Amino acid sequence: MQRNRNIIAVCFFVAAFSALLWGRQAAGPAAQQQPAPADDPVKALVERLDLERYKATIKGLTQFGDRLEGTDRNRAAVDWIEAQMKSYGCTNTERLRYTRTLPTPAPARTQGRPQRNIIIQSGEIRTGVGGSRYRGIATPTDPNNDPSKQPDPSLRALNAQPSASGPREEVYCTKIGTTHPDEMYIVGAHMDGRGFGEAANDNGSGTALVMELARILNAPDVQTDRSIRFALWNSEEGGLNGARAYVEQRAALQGKEDPPGSGRYPEPKWLGMIQHDMMLWDHGMPRADGSISPEQRPEADVNIEFQSTARFADQAMKLAFFFRDANEKYATDYPAAVGPHMTNTDSTPFMDFAPAISLRENERGMHTGAGWNPHWHQPTDRYTTFSDKDFRLGLNAAQTTLAAIAQLAGATLKK
Ligand SMILES: [Zn+2]
């Protein structure tokens, strides 16, 4: 009886697999893993990304030190980003304004984080943020809050002004869709940082990625069916305050034509929110003594996360796998992996309003949360800390998002 059941199961499997193959053939060549055709606009757009340009944009952001919110260096960075976006042809820049009151005294260390190196035992379940589970080695993750820890005197001077409560601004600009201007994808990253370094990785790397995509998608010969908004959130490090303010102020405006009959949609309907936060470093698990490999691991990957508890979890999961597929077809060096524990970044405030995902160097919970990036929020988060192998991981994330968004928004090149 058991054997018969197995035979039936095998027959069913073969039938199902044949149907799957047939379905793929019926769906045409696009459904198969074949190289993109020579005139593929997605491939042409992805080829406009360039490692040296991406690095130069990160370097440009580091001239404002750690870009701590509520400081002149943060405001100067917002101005610089806006000027760059305009120069790329994303000329309709706007600013979202909100007020931030800093907590007094500063909040205590987050509970549950390792305060020393911990070796997680076989079978031990130690949970992290976002529903994650730590494995292997966990090391401390406390941010540096002491400006004097920066050994470079000129950077120490640049980062000297403390953060103050008060008004905040963040900038965004929009590529308007030609046939569906009332719908958009939001491509975001937070531009503020902390730790009294240069916030090169967290989050110069994500900010530069969004800026490079804005440059390419706003070129005069590119058009898209749907709109794409490029948003550089502020105050992420204080608790996602800039993204939360955006959702609070603008969620109800979605899809409304204003003024009526004008064909203008100040807040197109949110089809998806894609956040980029820490893109460069995937050096693997720390060793038992807490030290970490100085080299990018050859198996490094882009981690695409959705949140399984979100209202739009199913749609976000589909979006995440669409991005993974875009990586497989178009990214040059590093693969992408999907996980269900997106957390602690600006896509979180959006996740109950629209499909929201994040792209990162590591999973935020079980990798970053376990201290696998020793430069996170530290004075060592500087441009010179990272190698071309690190920068190339960020570039592959840019290729992934550009390829996915170009397809989703219906990008074409004018002849
Ligand atoms: Zn970050």
Can you walk me through this structure?
- This protein has 415 residues and is an alpha/beta fold.
- The protein has helices at 2-27, 41-46, 51-62, 72-87, 153-158, 200-217, 241-250, 313-330, 388-408, and strands spanning 94-100, 118-119, 137-138, 166-175, 180-190, 222-224, 226-233, 269-276, 302-305, 336-339, 356-360, 411-413.
- The chain has an eight-stranded mixed sheet with strand order 1-4-7-5-8-11-9-10, with helices on both faces. Strands 2-3 form a two-stranded antiparallel ribbon. It has a two-stranded antiparallel ribbon with strand order 6-12.
- Helix 8 links the parallel strand 9 and strand 10.
- The longest helix has 26 residues, at 2-27.
- It is globular.
- Residues 6-31 have low confidence and may be disordered.
- The structure holds zinc ion.
- Zinc ion (ZN) is lined by residues 190, 202-203, 236, 277-278.
Give descriptors for this structure.
two-stranded antiparallel sheet; 8-stranded mixed beta sheet; binds zinc ion; 415 residues; alpha/beta
What's a concise summary of this model?
This protein is of the alpha/beta class and 415 residues long. The chain has 9 helices and 12 strands. α3 packs across α6 (200-217), α6 (200-217) crosses α9 and α8 packs across α9 (388-408).
List the helices and strands and how they pair.
Blueprint: H1 2-27, H2 41-46, H3 51-62, H4 72-87, E1 94-100, E2 118-119, E3 137-138, H5 153-158, E4 166-175, E5 180-190, H6 200-217, E6 222-224, E7 226-233, H7 241-250, E8 269-276, E9 302-305, H8 313-330, E10 336-339, E11 356-360, H9 388-408, E12 411-413
Parallel strand pairs: 5-7, 5-8, 8-11, 9-10
Antiparallel strand pairs: 1-4, 2-3, 4-7, 6-12, 9-11
Helix pairs in contact: 3-6, 6-9, 8-9
Bound molecules: zinc ion.
